[in-house]
Batch of 2 targets.
Target 1
Amino acid sequence: MREAVRDVNLDLEALTRRLTRERYGRAGRNALRLTVLATRICPYGLVRPHLGGSVPHVIDDAVEAAAVGILALGDR
């Protein structure tokens, strides 16, 4: 099974690096961490309590606001 899943996240990792470079002009460790937090970890945390049911529409706005705020941390 290891062989079957070894490369499963390569496309996601490449996209994350591309988005990070587009946003910050670099893809260093801290910039990558912020991008992952803003685009994967935080959105999942906001949606997770609603899995299996309906997700309130206000969550869309919360995810966007959180992502924008997290990405702005890299501008300091």
Target 2
Amino acid sequence: MALKEFIQELEKRLLKLQHGAEELIQQHDDLTTLFNLLVSVKGIAEASAVQLLGELAILPADMTAKEWVAHAGLDPREFSSGTSVNKKTRITKAGNRYIRLALYMPALSAKQHEKHVKAYYLHLIDDNGLKKMQAVCAVMRKLLHAIHAMFKTQKTFDGSKFYALVDTATA
């Protein structure tokens, strides 16, 4: 019984911290703008937006999207040695693991609920032959690119720029 009470107490503390972070964000106009841009993405809710904002808002403004991806450890790395060793490409995981953690659940949610993200995910699996986890990592990487663009342009998420849907009637 003590374990259930402890878990409930931890959940209360987490909720209190979440509300405190959101109040802090509301006190700063620039953070509020970035927060609202993040929650404009289907799949990124308040909790994930706070996590992402904590990791991305501190990055230098002159970093490119490619540098963001490398900083997050979502950039692909080939492993080869001579002519005999050619392993599959993997993400480096050399960067900030907290960005990867903060992007994972939004990527899963977005691939279910945002039609452009879902189409991109299915394209990666069906046409490119990626495994499901590889496709999720690719979605995370592309979401990070989209967030970078949203922060630079101060425009909300536009799924048509994320991935163009193919109209099967005209194709």
